[in-house]
Design brief:
By secondary structure, the protein is mainly alpha-helical. The chain is built from 8 helices and 2 strands. Helix 4 runs antiparallel to helix 7.
């Protein structure tokens, strides 16, 4: 409900009215709200099923900058970071991200940071990770996140491109965050609820986020003109 408290006119991208007997599927990561417009005598039901598998890795990669800035789905951020680093478990040390060119080079340089882990998985040394070389429990998720041409394998260039994209997004989010609030970006987001932060911190964060989003929207409008 924070969007209504900003004092500015806002309207949703989609507005859908359901008739009797109809249901609506809401995809992962889509912020939404429901309203009973039939009065007190009408009964409505909202049922939520949350699945760990299959993880919507391709969807999250496609909309990564938006997903990473949507606090409502912060619980997915660590898993996205883990996929970006090929489930190496090293993402905790990389949460500040890096500029795109630097991160891409790290992924391509033999023996360097995440590049080293790609080489560890690449058993036959052909520069591609096929299904047999990926962790059994994460094959579909990793392919969905990194396999850009959808040929069933992750080429090193594809890995470098996607890892660079993720690291650059992390870097920009960290840089956009005021210094005194950056420590919250480095916490385990699976256990951190925005609502649990001190009231003053919540208000400062919301105020800054609104201001940042308004600047972005203004810049987008200027680019369109």
């Amino acid at each position: 409900g924070q969007v209504y408290k900003s004092g500015k006119t806002w309207s949703p991208h989609f507005s859908i009215e359901l008739k009797k007997g109809e249901a609506l599927f809401v995809p992962p990561g889509m912020v939404h709200e429901t309203l009973n417009i039939g009065g007190e005598k009408n009964c409505t039901a909202s049922v939520t099923f949350q699945f760990s598998h299959p993880f919507p890795s391709r969807l999250y990669r496609t909309y990564l900058p938006r997903v990473r800035r949507t606090a409502d789905i912060h619980e997915a951020w660590p898993e996205i970071a883990n996929l970006a680093t090929l489930k190496s478990g090293m993402f905790q040390s990389l949460l500040q991200g890096a500029p795109y060119a630097q991160a891409r080079m790290d992924a391509l340089t033999p023996g360097a940071s995440v590049g080293r882990f790609f080489e560890k998985l690449d058993k036959n040394g052909d520069g591609r990770l096929d299904r047999r070389e990926l962790p059994n429990e994460s094959v579909e998720e990793l392919l969905g996140f990194h396999d850009l041409n959808e040929d069933g394998a992750i080429a090193r260039l594809e890995f470098a491109e996607v890892y660079g994209f993720w690291a650059a997004t992390q870097h920009q989010v960290f840089q956009d965050t005021p210094p005194k609030l950056r420590k919250f970006q480095l916490k385990d987001m699976q256990d951190l609820n925005i609502e649990d932060l001190p009231g003053k911190v919540q208000r400062e964060s919301l105020k800054f986020a609104r201001s940042l989003e308004e600047r972005r929207q203004t810049n987008l409008r200027k680019e369109e003109l």
